[in-house]
């Protein structure tokens, strides 16, 4: 059964990004985004309460994840320039198979990030 999940690792400190805010949006054909869910990541850098989208909510289409990187690092006391080099990471992606497992990890520091389709 399909679902969408995420996992964020803070590579600057070598640990999960506990407390980071993440927003999931559905993007329509005109590019307008509607917020589906907003979560705060747990101590493991994941969403509490299961996947971001479960099998019933999975849908083919365009989606967006917004990772609030600068507020996360500022909350840890990291001194960032103003404006921050990496502020909000906006990741637009597609779900082509609603029965598939889509895992979107983010590796992040105040000055870089990397993502991929995980397993």
TrEMBL record:
Gene Ontology biological process terms from the UniProt entry: purine nucleobase metabolic process
CDD domains xrefs: TLP_HIUase (cd05822)
A UniProt-annotated Pfam family: Transthyretin
Protein family per UniProt: Belongs to the transthyretin family. 5-hydroxyisourate hydrolase subfamily.
Name of protein: 5-hydroxyisourate hydrolase
Enzyme class: hydrolase
Keyword list, A-Z: Hydrolase, Purine metabolism
Ranges for domain Transthyretin/hydroxyisourate hydrolase: 4-118
Subunit description: Homotetramer.
Residues that, per the record, bind substrate: 7, 46, 116
Record's catalysed reaction(s): 5-hydroxyisourate + H2O = 5-hydroxy-2-oxo-4-ureido-2,5-dihydro-1H-imidazole-5-carboxylate + H(+)
Coiled coil ranges: none
Species in which this protein is naturally found: Scleromatobacter humisilvae
One annotated GO molecular function: hydroxyisourate hydrolase activity
EC number in record: 3.5.2.17
Function statement: Catalyzes the hydrolysis of 5-hydroxyisourate (HIU) to 2-oxo-4-hydroxy-4-carboxy-5-ureidoimidazoline (OHCU).
Keyword Hydrolase carried by entry: yes
Keyword Hydrolase attributed: yes
């Amino acid at each position: 059964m399909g679902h969408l999940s995420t996992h964020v690792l803070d590579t600057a400190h070598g640990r999960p990004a506990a407390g980071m805010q993440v927003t999931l949006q559905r993007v329509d054909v005109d590019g307008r985004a509607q917020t589906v869910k907003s979560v705060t990541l747990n101590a493991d850098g994941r969403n509490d309460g299961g996947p971001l989208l479960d099998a019933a909510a999975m849908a083919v289409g365009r989606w967006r994840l917004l990772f609030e990187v600068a507020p996360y690092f500022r909350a840890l006391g990291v001194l960032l320039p103003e404006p921050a080099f990496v502020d909000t990471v906006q990741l637009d992606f597609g779900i082509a198979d609603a029965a598939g497992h889509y895992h979107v990890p983010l590796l992040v520091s105040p000055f870089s990030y990397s993502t991929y389709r995980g397993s």
